[in-house]
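Design job #97: recover the sequence.
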């Protein structure tokens, strides 16, 4: 029996200003490993493209980019009502990314209740890490 390939590789959370406030890799499988600086650049670039895509919609009612598909991966984005973007890098065959994004958003909402967490700032919380890792494991 062939081993099952992981379908969720990376999570990025980008604040409404385009800053990377959370990033974790959950599986090997992408062709190259990005440095933390590369993820910062990717987050800023994605934020800019997302904003432009929302503005150039012919109907004027776009929420921006939701999926970028490539041959070997997909980037799937969900934007919260406050402008925070949750971006997963997943395998092309992934069918659980919407469920994962909703569950991660719920975990983030719980994080906001922490009196020691300042909204829009980097997330450094072991309980949040564990909760998200559990979500990823359950949905990969």
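Job complete. Output follows.
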């Amino acid at each position: 029996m062939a081993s099952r390939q992981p379908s969720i590789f990376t999570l990025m959370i980008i604040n409404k200003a385009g800053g990377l406030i959370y990033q974790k890799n959950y599986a090997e499988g992408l062709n190259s490993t990005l440095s933390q600086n590369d993820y910062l650049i990717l987050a800023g670039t994605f934020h800019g493209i997302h904003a432009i895509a929302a503005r150039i919609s012919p109907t004027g009612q776009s929420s921006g980019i939701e999926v970028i598909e490539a041959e070997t991966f997909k980037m799937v984005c969900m934007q919260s009502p406050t402008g925070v973007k949750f971006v997963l890098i997943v395998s092309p065959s992934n069918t659980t990314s919407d469920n994962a994004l909703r569950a991660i958003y719920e975990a983030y909402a719980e994080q906001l209740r922490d009196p020691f967490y300042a909204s829009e700032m980097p997330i450094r919380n072991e309980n949040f890490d564990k909760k998200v890792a559990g979500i990823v494991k359950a949905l990969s």
